[in-house]
Amino acid sequence: MKKAIIALASLLVIIAAAVGALFVWEHQSKLALEGQVEDYLDERSIDASAIDVHGRPYILFAMRDSVDLTYVDLELQDGTNKDQLLVHRLSNGEPDRLTRFVTFDHPEGEVDPIERADGSFTESAMVDGTKVTYSADVKDHKLRLFADGHKTGEIAVEKGVSQNGAAVTDTGVVIGLDYDSPDFVAAN
């Protein structure tokens, strides 16, 4: 009986050590993947306020030197409350593609986003009881936001960026951006 208890205790210690080692390896893998993303951003002079690597288990992605998807919070520009770059499938220092979502502040007044039947947001909102439709364009390295054709916001963007839609949400007016190439230098 004593030998069985010793064998069981030994087995439990070995299992606990293996599980602990796996957690450490997973954490170290995440740090390695974050390092790859940081290197990519540094090469392009991008200042990130936060990096959130997705794609588990991290161990498998780290073994392939590949990062599935990363959310990068960028420094805010005037008139924005969120600016997030998505780095898709970073491998060997180059992503497959980049997308970005810039959230401009709501206008003054009471804003009620207009939703589709499925609950998704549209490019329109009721602002103080009046329907307002938002749009955006990119021209001369500037992303410009319009409300019913009148410019309401502007930020600097990189060369080779195009806008792909607007949506009024509970947190602001979100503009989607696509990058022609993942090889760019940040706008200053």
- Count of runs of 4 or more consecutive helical residues: 2
Beta strand count: 11
- Shape, please? elongated
Succession of helices and strands:
HEHEEEEEEEEEE
In the predicted model, the low-confidence regions spanning at least 5 consecutive residues are none
Task: Give the biggest beta sheet.
Answer: 6 strands, antiparallel
> Roughly how many Å apart are the termini?
73 Å
What is the rounded Rg?
Answer: 23 Å
The helical percent reads 25-40%
The figure for the number of domains is 1
Which SSEs are present, and which pair or pack?
Layout: H1 2-43, E1 48-54, H2 58-63, E2 66-74, E3 80-91, E4 97-104, E5 111-115, E6 121-127, E7 130-139, E8 142-147, E9 150-156, E10 161-168, E11 173-179
Antiparallel strand pairs: 1-2, 2-3, 3-4, 4-11, 5-6, 6-7, 7-8, 8-9, 10-11
Question: How would you describe this structure to a colleague?
Answer:
The chain is α+β, with helices and mostly antiparallel strands. The protein has one domain. It is 26% helix and 46% strand. The chain is built from 2 helices and 11 strands. It has helices at 2-43, 58-63; strands spanning 48-54, 66-74, 80-91, 97-104, 111-115, 121-127, 130-139, 142-147, 150-156, 161-168, 173-179. The strands form 2 sheets. Strands 1-2-3-4-11-10 form a 6-stranded antiparallel beta sheet. A 5-stranded antiparallel beta sheet has the order 5-6-7-8-9, with no helix packed on it. It is elongated, with a radius of gyration of 23 Å. The termini are far apart. The mean pLDDT is 92.
